[in-house]
Amino acid sequence: MEIYDEIKFDESGLVPAVIQDWQNGEVLMVAYMNRDSLETTLKTGKAHFWSRSRQKFWMKGESSGHTQEVKEICIDCDADCLLIKVDQKVAACHTGFRSCFYRKWDNGKFTETGKKMFDEKDVYK
């Protein structure tokens, strides 16, 4: 049996993947994977995804250099969501923050709580 046989991909052939820092447990991002991106992730050890908005295959860090080295892949009890633990190089969020979850709801508004690691205008020209 292969890993693909264990995963319940949705009707579009996708499965959500929660990306977590393998050392401190911080949730870095959520992305989607199809069979090809999962296969490439397994072969290379670097996280690859399917962009629903751009309709294209991509490797995390292909533009920024901020790659994710995969340390562990887990699956939830319903087999319809992956948890991928990674060694994150620099930052996961394209806005420059380490995590995409850098805003917290507090007193009726979202406030920034994360640390900005880079200026996205310098990285994505």
What does this structure look like?
There is one protein chain. This protein has 125 residues and is α+β, with helices and mostly antiparallel strands. It has a single domain (3-118), classed as Phosphoribosyl-AMP cyclohydrolase (Ubiquitin-like (UB roll), Roll), CATH 3.10.20.810. Helix content is 14%, strand content 36%. The protein contains three helices and eight strands, in the order αββαββββββα. It has a four-stranded mixed beta sheet, covered by helices on one side. The protein has a two-stranded antiparallel sheet with strand order 3-4. The protein is globular.
Main attributes?
globular; two-stranded antiparallel ribbon; four-stranded mixed beta sheet; alpha+beta; 36% strand; Ubiquitin-like (UB roll); 125 residues
